[in-house]
Amino acid sequence: MGSRKCGGCLSGLLIPLALWSIIVNILLYFPNGQTSYASSNKLTNYVWYFEGICFSGIMTLLSMIFSALGIAFSGYCLVISALGLVQGPYCRTLDGWEYVFEGTAGRFLTDSSIWTECLEPAHVVEWNIILFSILIALSGLQVLVCLIRVVTQLSRILCGTYSVIIQVTDPQWHLDLLHFTPTTQDPMTPVERV
Description:
Blueprint: H1 2-28, H2 36-39, H3 51-62, H4 67-87, E1 91-93, E2 96-98, H5 124-159, E3 163-165, E4 177-179
Antiparallel strand pairs: 1-2, 3-4
């Protein structure tokens, strides 16, 4: 009984996590709320992997049925978002458009004094750090939730707590719910009532 309640609760939690991943990924296309960078293809290349929209968002919604795939898809979002965070934004510097922090192995994340090397889009470093960090947190939660769902579903299968609904056609039989227990008896032969 507890595993059913837990499974339903986790399913309900995946929906807002997936929707937030979609929203946050869409925001990555508009640094500082401006559309001009997306239309001129001046965005961090990891934004184009659609990790929040497709994999942590839409595919996780579909993975209610396939929780194991939810782990893989959310894990993909987590890895790609981490790579995007460590690489840093694609921005205009004095030398032109480039990944100015690409060779720093993420050290720029703790040294805000060098963020001014990105001249355009305004505040793109903060924008990428915040949104990629949110995607990492959301997809990390999704991995945990999906993992718990897989374990819960496996325990229900292995422990035999799945229920089978039986439609009774004979009025003397008043069975609404029968817990499945494998037997060697022919399933078409009625069980004698005591």
